Transglutaminase-like domain-containing protein (Henosepilachna vigintioctopunctata), 340 residues
Amino acid sequence: MLEKVISIWMFIRTHRIEIQWKKDRDEQRRLEMKHRKEEDDLYRKFQRQREEEERRIKDEIRDEWEKELERLTHRFEREMQMKRKRDDQNVLTLRHQQEKDDLEKNMTLRRDKKKESLTRKMLEHERAATAALVEKQSHEMLELINEKRSEFMQAESLYLEGDGMPLEEVEPYPSVAPAPAPPALSKFQVYNDPVEFSSVDQIAISVAQEDQKSFTDLVRQLVGRCGSDIEKARTIFRWITVKNLNTMSFDDNLRGDTPMGLLRGIKNGTESYHVLFKRLCSYAGLHCVVIKGYSKSAGYQPGVRFEDNRFRNSWNAVYVAGAWRFVQCNWGARHLVNAK
């Protein structure tokens, strides 16, 4: 009789959890759709700004070209009037044509350099704007997840206590990001060998071969079977590093409801590994930050000073296993080059 009661209780509890899971998923999807609209608006703004700047450069170069061409033509006509011999006029004509060709080449080079400089400046601005938007959206997603987590734990606590069932003593994941501090436990005290993550790694590799229509579905497939926050972070890390985003080519007609279509920031050059990792962590309810600085990467030689933009890098810190842990997705996904 007791076994039957426990079985019924487990069935009801599992059913309640599934209903709550679907309800939370739907709310998470709605928030994601709101975020996607914000991203669409931002990318459209980027596109308008790029088009406007390109038109401005084109108009500037055209005005310069017309003025310089007018100057050359005026000089040519004046010199032609002074020359009476046909041979001299032929020489002037050839020289004038060569000057026009040189002018066109110079104007083209100037236009290309201006466009290149503009692209770098705008891309830097767009990356900063995208990072700020992801920061805001990640905060909103974490707030939603923390709210639902709190509601579920409170309801579950009352439900279990009402049935006289024991409550598990589990340290809750912090709803507010803890202050930076060195971890109390070393990495080797958390896990001994990466092989311990072989099962969640395989989940990430399998999910990477499938289609998902939203980050919500993607992350839930990744972390649904994870037993700890460190496994959640690991499977997100592994999913990202399976894909070499630096060498991926994106179709201009890419549908938005495909895995690659979701990575619009990568396609537009405004999102990177560390921003994507932060975004996905927020969908899993994990605190994550982006850290900017310098790193001794491939090409660094002993004694080289960190100056200008050389060796600039970014990475993440994610709060798992009771502490902030560093993650470098970019290095995890690439091979060293030009390294002796």
Summary: The beta strands are 288-294, 312-320, 323-327. The chain has two domains: 1-171, 173-340.
